[in-house]
Structure formats: structure tokens, C-alpha cells
Amino acid sequence: MDGYFEVYAAGAVRLVSLTAGALTIGRAPSNELPIDSRLVSRLHALVEHFPSGWSIRDLGSTNGTTVNGTPVRQAQILRDGDRVEIGPARLVFHAPAEHSSTRTVHVEPPPPPPALTPREQEVVTVLCRPFLAGGVPFPEPPAVRAIAATLHITESAVKKHLSRLYDKFGLTTNDDRRRSRLASEAVRRGVAGTPPSVDASCR
């Protein structure tokens, strides 16, 4: 077998061989790998073979594609053991046989989450709501003002809690994407909370 996906979907497991130069994934039955779910776009993602190996590219889907929990923003090379998530389906990539002599890349589990105060947990939960709600391919976290309005606290208090959260999650680089990286880390480590919907103030 030239390489394959182990596909977990609809309560079943199946193997999908990668024998052609490309494979489309989406809700439409015409795809080489159809996934019957409203969370999946009709033409959702494309898997292609290049000299460097197999890659996956999101095709502007509504809910996005992730590899090992990270959104796919451009064509990304797949490594043996990579976990691809598309809607409710989970795909585990297995490297082509001709590359079997190379070192297998093992996906390490995320580190345990840091201990959070109740208020820090509330801030994290509100921060992560757009990432859990779905509906957009690359969500943005709510602004400090929106978090403050949702929790009925001051903006300075939110900034103080965020500063402590950055330290606890090891996000030392101060840049415009730090809130997004904090939300991604919280989701990855399982402390994002499970809010049912996004408040209007957080949109």
C-alpha cells in the first residue's frame, strides 16, 4: 500500500488507500473520500502527492481542517501518525511504504494544563468560545473589551488575568497573536470549557 488514511467516522473505522496523485475530501459523494456531515463542506480538502511526500490543503471550507489540532492555513506536508480532523471525522495518516525506513514521527500528547483560578478559567472559556462554536474556518478570539463585558469585570482585570495565563501556558512572546495562541493551547490541553454558543458581545 502506497500510504493510507485510517478513517474514524460515523462510529466505524475504515482504511482509505492513497494510490493516485490526489484525493479530495468533502461532503459531496463525488469525492474520493466522502464524509456525510453538515459540518463538512462539499469540497473540503485536497490531499496531494509531491516529491517530498503527501500534503493536505484546506479548500476554503466553512469549518476548517486541522492537523494535530492546528488549523491548516496552507498546504502542509503530512508525517506518519499525523491526525487530521475534518468535521466529525478523524483521519490518521500512515506514511507510504517506500518511506518506511525513515524515522516515524510520534505525536506526543499535550502537556497537562496548568492550575487555574476560577476567574482565570472563566476568562479562558470566553476566550475559546469562537474556537469551539465552529462556523468560520479561522476564528479569532474576542477582544479584551468583549471578555470584560461578558464577565462583568473591568478591562484592566481581564488584562491582568490574561498576563497570568500567558505565563502559566508559557507564552512569553508578546505579539498580536498571543491571545489566539493562548486559546489554541487551552483547547489543545482540554481547559477551554464547553460553552453551548457564543454571546453576541464575543463575536
UniProtKB/TrEMBL annotation:
Keywords: Phosphoprotein
CDD domains: FHA (cd00060)
Classification via Pfam families: FHA
UniProt key word Phosphoprotein: yes
A GO biological-process term: regulation of DNA-templated transcription
UniProt GO molecular function: DNA binding
InterPro entries assigned: Cell_Proc_Reg/RNA_Proc, FHA_dom, Sig_transdc_resp-reg_C-effctor, SMAD_FHA_dom_sf, Tscrpt_reg_LuxR_C, WH-like_DNA-bd_sf
Presence of the UniProt keyword Cytoplasm in the record: no
Ranges for domain FHA: 23-72
PANTHER family: NUCLEAR INHIBITOR OF PROTEIN PHOSPHATASE-1
Protein name stated in the entry: Peptide-binding protein
